[in-house]
């Protein structure tokens, strides 16, 4: 400690190198800094020490105290009252809030009875001896304490002020820590290689959600990729063995609200591994990186098949923090006389299902439609108690109606004070055995990839690829946290012949568009698989944020705008010239004419 | 070891979780994998062990050996010759090179005299007992051993094959390790926060090198930023205190060769710090992350002022691995009668300088132009010995002529076998005290920022900002390694009034374009500074690569093309519609007409 103070003094006198030579002694958040401590760390152990703090003026109190803030917390600075310190007193009392200062002083115990137990530094205060004003806060768009009441738009415009809140500071720091631990786990524990892949890429055919980037060659465009999928597979073909990247990805969702046009995924790919290996890796990574203050994470996570998820929760990403599972009542109504129920049961995958909302009904509703045995059978099957509400739906098993209703009921019950889901609980769940293909929405006779065309079939289902492809299950796994899909991955097809069959014969796509991938698979591709986790979503669930915007430093608005810098912005036709593009204004488009000045006659 | 094998056996039988529970025992590059070891790690210590290797068939030898390869090296597999193993023998002998296999067998010592000392695994071989062929290599564009002879274009097209070379594997792994250690140093040692900043940003006015990204709103464009400069300063205003990011940046250099349109920088910003603090931080970071096999790095690095660099080396990024400094001969010729020398000396900043190339001349050249005292004076001043070559230039001090000549001479001498620069030496150098402003190239009466308009002046020069701005030195520092500029940074202006003065009165720029930054500085900005290191360049110097393409997994070609996937590519007018742009083909442009089909008559 003495040595540290000696070094600090040397540094204060602009002696440049001693503290580097002894750098082991000057680590942590105040290394190489004008301050000796942060505003959040002083305790009664420090009483008597001379310290230097740097920070923002949070507020002044009674011309006696300045409360100083930095990222780590608050410290109370006592303004000296004796006459000899009049200049210092005047300077301190005149500080505008949010001004940035350096205060040197001595740590002292607060007088008995004046401790603040709610404040981590509440046992002490700093008797100011010196003040340097780095910057005066001359202008704020509004008072900081009014900030939370301001509109979202205003808070986005002054994002750098919003980020000063302790919550945003915590969110950004937790995110950084989580990612750092993930990297340590992947790199240092399991020998993964962090490889950067290009973001100026080729447009995926039909990739309607891909931003285009004009090049200086007429008519040629790069595209910002939605994920490094092709590159990570090529890295396995290249023998990189274990790849990861915290990858920036892009998706142009147009006007879809609450989507960020750029987002981040934890992207992982591994050779010579099976599905269980990837799942164990991800479990280990989350356990390793999980913030200590959120309690330990139990592994392995629960595993559920897609069919089980759909049957019990009516959705492929169930929130397993509460029960209220779907109850199959098809048998109860097997000989019902009610016409719409009979008709529902007669269709393919038709069923009658219910959820039982505990205490969901104020009084028992007599169900006039049902016969007495049906009612009795129904109530016993649903294990419904008096006061419970039964919601019954009839139709295709695949319809998300009851799954959605289940979540809405939970929200409704919670908004009425019922504690259904523990807000501090984290329920991780793997969903596996997805169908490899699903009927196309616009043409149910044809098949589409349930996830993407590179997913390998389950080995025991491979033969079905030729006969009944719709029955094939994929080696795909989704990771769900508290009902949010936070990741998905698969073992990939590593043989060119199988990949070609899937593309050409099942998906009816033009395989020449992926010729470089097919060629790569034929040059010696190892078995491989991987996963991608949505980092923004994962962090937002971990910190309990209502939007991913709360875990991103500079998010875009609902409409994809940066309200602080005004992006996107206009660009002159002159500046577009090197890119060989011109703007097609909607009116001209309606007029059906060409571009430029020739639109008239 | 026994436990490890038990766990491995359990895993081989698809028992999923035991090795997770005991995960401490199954770490490293073969964790969770089909293999028990990599192809580079077996030694005579392993003799007698049953092992499983996965890898690529490097080559076959005499129907006796298969050489198996993975990222870590090569292992020799012995093909069993006894009759009972005929099937296995046939399978192994029939393997096409670059096929991917799993081999199980027993480690044995090579027979005496057959060890290969050049091969890390050369003491042992694996007696094969089992083979699984994962994938047959059916097609290679050429033989792998011919690869290095192929054209750059072909090697880029088959990049995944180029990456299989041990050199590229090493480069990518060294890069990953270096970055990982940098992160550990910044995050874990000094409390930095890894914050991601947007890459869909607003176009910088006049930012001719910024790619544009059309949005779905007519006439509005995002822009891919050249660096996170504005965001990192705003993060300091936001109180984040210590930010870093391994940031993807974009620069559209058009047709400039050997530039990558996207590149990566280690981006750092700190509050409450001075120039010496940032320099010490970077020195510590490089020392901490420096690859052990490159020898220890000495800190502090040498520091040189801009004026010293220009005077002694004729360049602001001197290669200090060799001497051959510039010698000022102005005094020698102070009363010369040679007209062009007199004229050179009479101009502003005019001088006569020389470099002395040791043994650069085969025989002494009689210099007929010079008088005897001039020649004697000259030779003594240059400390030239018989056989040395003196290159003399007269003109402005700022011309890069002799600086370039010095480097070209070094190359020339080295190409003739002289060892001038130690290829294993790493000379780091800080260049400081740059002028804050330089005369504009097209109009020397006006000033431009030497680096960028946010650089703070040296405190003692601040007053000159009003009177003689061209004399102001900036708090800017460049980091040079072996004559390559690998980084640059500065202490920033943190007061709005000063920033406004620089923008408006000195640079004559429209300050409203940076109004959000000026407003931010007035809301309580701390003193701050930072640096950005060019990661691609740094890694390429460390590994001794001739191009940054050798340290990037999927680089673009000279012309900015991805030759593997064919990016950039055409996009249909239909797909451009949502972005309200159309292509302006050069011929149409020349014709002056509009777009689309209306171009004719």
UniProtKB/TrEMBL annotation, chains A, B:
<dbReference type="GO" id="GO:0004815">
    <property type="term" value="F:aspartate-tRNA ligase activity"/>
</dbReference>
<dbReference type="Pfam" id="PF01336">
    <property type="entry name" value="tRNA_anti-codon"/>
</dbReference>
<dbReference type="InterPro" id="IPR004364">
    <property type="entry name" value="Aa-tRNA-synt_II"/>
</dbReference>
<keyword id="KW-0030">Aminoacyl-tRNA synthetase</keyword>
<keyword id="KW-0648">Protein biosynthesis</keyword>
<keyword id="KW-0436">Ligase</keyword>
<dbReference type="InterPro" id="IPR004115">
    <property type="entry name" value="GAD-like_sf"/>
</dbReference>
<dbReference type="InterPro" id="IPR004365">
    <property type="entry name" value="NA-bd_OB_tRNA"/>
</dbReference>
<dbReference type="GO" id="GO:0003676">
    <property type="term" value="F:nucleic acid binding"/>
</dbReference>
<keyword id="KW-0067">ATP-binding</keyword>
<dbReference type="InterPro" id="IPR004524">
    <property type="entry name" value="Asp-tRNA-ligase_1"/>
</dbReference>
<dbReference type="GO" id="GO:0005524">
    <property type="term" value="F:ATP binding"/>
</dbReference>
<dbReference type="InterPro" id="IPR047090">
    <property type="entry name" value="AspRS_core"/>
</dbReference>
<feature type="domain" description="Aminoacyl-transfer RNA synthetases class-II family profile">
    <location>
        <begin position="172"/>
        <end position="555"/>
    </location>
</feature>
<dbReference type="InterPro" id="IPR012340">
    <property type="entry name" value="NA-bd_OB-fold"/>
</dbReference>
<comment type="similarity">
    <text>Belongs to the class-II aminoacyl-tRNA synthetase family. Type 1 subfamily.</text>
</comment>
<dbReference type="InterPro" id="IPR006195">
    <property type="entry name" value="aa-tRNA-synth_II"/>
</dbReference>
<protein>
    <submittedName>
        <fullName>Aspartyl-tRNA synthetase 2, mitochondrial</fullName>
    </submittedName>
</protein>
<dbReference type="InterPro" id="IPR002312">
    <property type="entry name" value="Asp/Asn-tRNA-synth_IIb"/>
</dbReference>
<dbReference type="Pfam" id="PF00152">
    <property type="entry name" value="tRNA-synt_2"/>
</dbReference>
<keyword id="KW-0547">Nucleotide-binding</keyword>
<dbReference type="GO" id="GO:0005739">
    <property type="term" value="C:mitochondrion"/>
</dbReference>
<dbReference type="InterPro" id="IPR047089">
    <property type="entry name" value="Asp-tRNA-ligase_1_N"/>
</dbReference>
<dbReference type="GO" id="GO:0006422">
    <property type="term" value="P:aspartyl-tRNA aminoacylation"/>
</dbReference>
<dbReference type="InterPro" id="IPR045864">
    <property type="entry name" value="aa-tRNA-synth_II/BPL/LPL"/>
</dbReference>
